[in-house]
Amino acid sequence: MAEKLMHAVRYDSYGGGVAGLKHVEVPVPTPGEGEVLLKLEARSLNPVDWKTQKGMLRPLFPRKFPFIPVSDVAGEVVEVGPEVKNFKAGDKVVAYLGPLLGGGLGEYAIAKVSLTVPRPPEVSPAEGAGLVVAGLTAHMALTQSAGVKLDGSGPRKNILITAASGGVGHYAVQLAKLGNTHVTATCGARNLDLVKSLGADEVLDYKTSEGAALKSPSGQKYDAVIHCATGISWSVFEPNLSSKGKVIDITPGPSSMWTFAVKKLTFSKKQLVPLLLAPKGENLDFLVKLVKEGKLKTVIDSKHPLSKAEDAWAKIIDGHATGKIIIEP
Ligand SMILES: NC(=O)c1ccc[n+]([C@@H]2O[C@H](COP(=O)([O-])OP(=O)(O)OC[C@H]3O[C@@H](n4cnc5c(N)ncnc54)[C@H](OP(=O)(O)O)[C@@H]3O)[C@@H](O)[C@H]2O)c1
Q: pLDDT (tens digit, 9 = 90+) per residue, 39-81?
């Protein structure tokens, strides 16, 4: 029997940006042990998608070309691989495909069941797909690195969230406010009202001198900074931190790795903590349930059809999304 083909968007080498994306017809993949085949209903983009194409993660990812990028998806299970007991054809799910497999810019994609969770009807495919890397990163930074308890039971903490209008930042604001926190946030002028509406107690325009100094208008010193922007030096954070304050840097470059090492070696009470997402299915399930309960929302920057994936790719490269960029069928 002839192989079933699907439409996909892929690239063949490092670099090239939007022009490097190619629309192709490729065979629909077959799920292996512990895997499911999904017909995709939505994908969301992350900065790591264009950074991977640019070669910033080489030699780790991608392992081989051509590569169908994108990790964050929502879809319907159409086939299950051997040994899959907890999903069946027809189930609606949200999944993290990971940087090794990728595959999100195909009509169909293979997902590992360990990083696939049910999507209830109250959560749209776009809302679910938005959650994956951005929501999981915000969750990990707050719960694991900053020690915020999302049931509100922990001690009160002052939190600063930079780039609070972005994918990670807008989830971080909402999740932080589920805990016992005071949240200061930074974003551009056009998003001040949005970030306030997500629950931030005070919001700074990062292009003003007060915003650039990260100074809390009400005089708070931060116990933790969920640092989702880039290009802010330790000397700007340091005077704003409480005595044991931590900066959790989700885009650590050479200078923050240096600060991390120096602070560790000198037993500094104020620390810089580099963070790399370690995705967990149970945390994704928790986030999907929060959306279902109306306690967390996905702000959608824009939606694009797969046939115009280039428009979405140009937007994520641009770095000015408000919330999540979504690609639908
Ligand atoms: N470590 C990990 O595992 C991990 C996981 C996820 C993401 N990341 C990294 O984390 C970073 C953020 O990711 P993201 O998905 O949230 O990005 P994003 O959605 O592309 O962020 C865009 C937003 O950031 C705002 N912004 C940019 N610079 C800012 C600044 N200096 N101060 C305040 N706001 C600023 C922009 O506002 P304007 O449009 O107004 O400028 C825009 O709304 C990226 O570098 C990404 O690669 C790392």
A: 999 999 999 999 999 999 998 999 899 999 999 999 999 999 9
Helix (H, G, I), strand (E, B) or coil at 261: helix
> What is the reported pTM?
0.98
Q: Tell me the C-alpha distance between 107 and 46, whole Å.
A: 19
The closest of 98, 90, 139 to 118, measured between CA atoms, is 90
Alpha carbon nearest to ligand 1 atom 23, residue: 166
Domains and CATH numbers, the chain: 5-119+299-328 (3.90.180.10), 136-274 (3.40.50.720)
For ligand 1, say whether the CB of 211 is within 6 Å of any of its atoms: no
What's the CA gap between 162 and 212, in Å, rounded?
A: 10
Could you read off the pLDDT of 290-317 as tens digits, one per residue?
Answer: 999 999 999 999 999 999 999 999 999 9
What are the tokens at 15?
A: 């670099």
Q: How far are the Cα atoms of 143, 177, 180, 208, 291 from residue 151, in angstroms, in the given order? A: 11, 10, 8, 34, 15
CA angle in degrees (0–180, nearest 5) for 262-268-274 = 55
Rounded to the nearest 10 degrees, what angle do helices 47-54 and 309-318 cross at? 90
Verify whether ligand 1 is closer than 6 Å to residue 309 (CB atom). no
Residue with tokens 């640092």: 227
Query: Residue 160 carries which side chain, given as an amino acid letter?
Result: L
Beta strands in 165-240 (DSSP E): 181-187, 202-205, 222-227
State in Å: Cα 273 to ligand 1 middle. 17
Q: How far is CA 107 from CA 8, 84, 210, 220, in A?
A: 6, 22, 46, 48
Atom 48 in ligand 1: which residue has the minimum CA distance? 250
